[in-house]
Amino acid sequence: MAGTAAPSTGQKLTAEFLGTFILVFGVIGAAIFSSANATLLGVAFALGLSVLVAAYAFGPISGGHFNPAVTLGLAVAGRFAWKDVAGYLVAQIVGGILGAVVLLGIVASAPGADVVATFRSASTGYDELSPAGFGIGAFFIAEIVATAVFLFVILGVTSAGRAAANFAPLAIGLTLTVLVLVAGPITNGSFNPARSIATAIFGGSEALVQLWASIVAPIVGGLIAGVLYKLIFDRAAKLSA
């Protein structure tokens, strides 16, 4: 029986594009359209479930990153080729923006809709953009630590010979749910530059001015986790081999 051909570069980038589209459409759509009834728990589950279904659908094709911080963290950890990083980042950002564009079209069709205010409420940030008014210091701590935890989980549940087969997307989705419950009131819970870019470009000047932080903090967290995991766990595995 012939083996299944490995996915092409185009298929991988398409999978990352579609997965990030699903993520942004799911979580931002839940935050925007369910605002009257939504709770932090509801938005947290929307993010976790969006990543869960996208990972099961497209993970076997592209690895299921859907997040520039994840791609960079995996590359630093030696789990992803640096030559493929740029393509993944572009696919993720474009997919996220398209998800926001579709939501924008829906929001704009409502009578008396304030598109900027709607996307501003879903944008990540500190001070006036923080749901509970936290400052930039708390923002960086929350986003860096949460993204690092997220990467540690991803690296752990996808380690060959260490993880239970087929359960990685479930663990990853549930981890995101927990992290949003913790960081949501502080930052609006991004841990993903592509998601932050998607909402900020339609969220007005405040969201755009603060966007740099929502790009830098998750990437720093991802890089820290990638370096530490490689030094601690992968090195230990090699020494014991």
From TrEMBL:
<feature type="transmembrane region" description="Helical">
    <location>
        <begin position="89"/>
        <end position="112"/>
    </location>
</feature>
<dbReference type="GO" id="GO:0015267">
    <property type="term" value="F:channel activity"/>
</dbReference>
<feature type="transmembrane region" description="Helical">
    <location>
        <begin position="207"/>
        <end position="229"/>
    </location>
</feature>
<dbReference type="Pfam" id="PF00230">
    <property type="entry name" value="MIP"/>
</dbReference>
<dbReference type="InterPro" id="IPR023271">
    <property type="entry name" value="Aquaporin-like"/>
</dbReference>
<keyword id="KW-1133">Transmembrane helix</keyword>
<keyword id="KW-0472">Membrane</keyword>
<comment type="similarity">
    <text>Belongs to the MIP/aquaporin (TC 1.A.8) family.</text>
</comment>
<protein>
    <submittedName>
        <fullName>Aquaporin Z</fullName>
    </submittedName>
</protein>
<dbReference type="InterPro" id="IPR000425">
    <property type="entry name" value="MIP"/>
</dbReference>
<dbReference type="GO" id="GO:0016020">
    <property type="term" value="C:membrane"/>
</dbReference>
<dbReference type="InterPro" id="IPR022357">
    <property type="entry name" value="MIP_CS"/>
</dbReference>
<feature type="transmembrane region" description="Helical">
    <location>
        <begin position="167"/>
        <end position="187"/>
    </location>
</feature>
<feature type="transmembrane region" description="Helical">
    <location>
        <begin position="17"/>
        <end position="33"/>
    </location>
</feature>
<feature type="transmembrane region" description="Helical">
    <location>
        <begin position="40"/>
        <end position="59"/>
    </location>
</feature>
<keyword id="KW-0813">Transport</keyword>
<keyword id="KW-0812">Transmembrane</keyword>
<feature type="transmembrane region" description="Helical">
    <location>
        <begin position="132"/>
        <end position="155"/>
    </location>
</feature>
<dbReference type="InterPro" id="IPR034294">
    <property type="entry name" value="Aquaporin_transptr"/>
</dbReference>
